[in-house]
Structure of Chloramphenicol acetyltransferase CAT:
Amino acid sequence: MLRPLDLTTWPRRQIDQHFRQNPCAFNVTVPVDVTAFKSRVQEAGRPFVPVLIYVICTVVNRLPALRMGLSDDGQPGVWDSILPLYTVFHPETQTFSALWTRLGGGFDEFLRNDRADARAYGSSPDYRPKPGTPPNVLNISVAPWLGFSAFELNLGEGADYLLPIFTVGRYEESAGRRNFRTFGDAASVEWSVEQSGPQQIQARATVHPPFQGLEAVHLG
């Protein structure tokens, strides 16, 4: 459910009004050290990409500033929670589908849901093979074959789309460390500035979702 914000007391109401009247877009790409993350996933015997998707959603669900949306009449609000909408690549046609899955009550349930959706819809060539995509989905793309130093995504008429979008590339090893690049939209950086001040934005970016708080995510 989208919980409307009280615009008479919301501290960001003037900022919201300004950028609604003057829409713009910018993108942020940051390198993230995933050495410990990858090791923990391997030790737990878990599949990497579903864990990554689950962790992204788990951390975003802890941050109201990353769960914002608009009501039918254009009023800003915060979703109670988000679900993942992730890409499934079809190598035979070089196309992809967008599939959503319910998180459930923990990672084991999410993994069961993910595998069930993969069996039911994973081979479909349709762009949205699973019906009933809810409005509170978080777009996540994982491209393990693609290494990039920067990534840009522009939504043509996306001024009213407030949820972040995550794109994760191939991790690379250097000096015994594994790093990959992750791309996020304006919401991630804006939250960092509000919480920590501009002087700490670089430090925040290196541990920003989906990776901050990984130790608190139970993988079974």
Observations:
- The helical segments are 13-21, 35-43, 48-60, 107-121, 186-196, 201-206.
